[in-house]
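quick one before i forget lol
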Amino acid sequence: MADRITTTAELTWDDELRFTAKSGGSKLVIDSNSQQGLSPMQTLAMSLAGCMAIDVVDIIKKGRHALRALRVTFTGLRAPASPKRFEEITLHYIIEGNVPAAAVERAIVLSREKYCSVWHSMRQDIALTVTHEVRG
């Protein structure tokens, strides 16, 4: 069995509903009101989008395609009542470069089904839609 990876994080309460979060050598502010930092749900949204975007870039580059730019937008619909979790998520990728659409589709599928640890850590009953467009 492979060695397990340990991730640690430490949150320190600053005031009101705001915390400084640290992990590794990085830190960010988590703020319930999104005034001085990201809310926990914004952080989760960025984590999922970032995880899948990293996978997609890595897979496309390993395929030796001429990727010039990638942008991904996250749209999440939340439940109206507590715990107000994400019920539906849409990720839309805009790819620039000489990258075949089939290569982008393959990268997205591999990220979703195999590699993205953030997605695999979330509830799997969330409706996840991923779309893309390639701009040469």
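fyi The longest strand covers residues 66-78.
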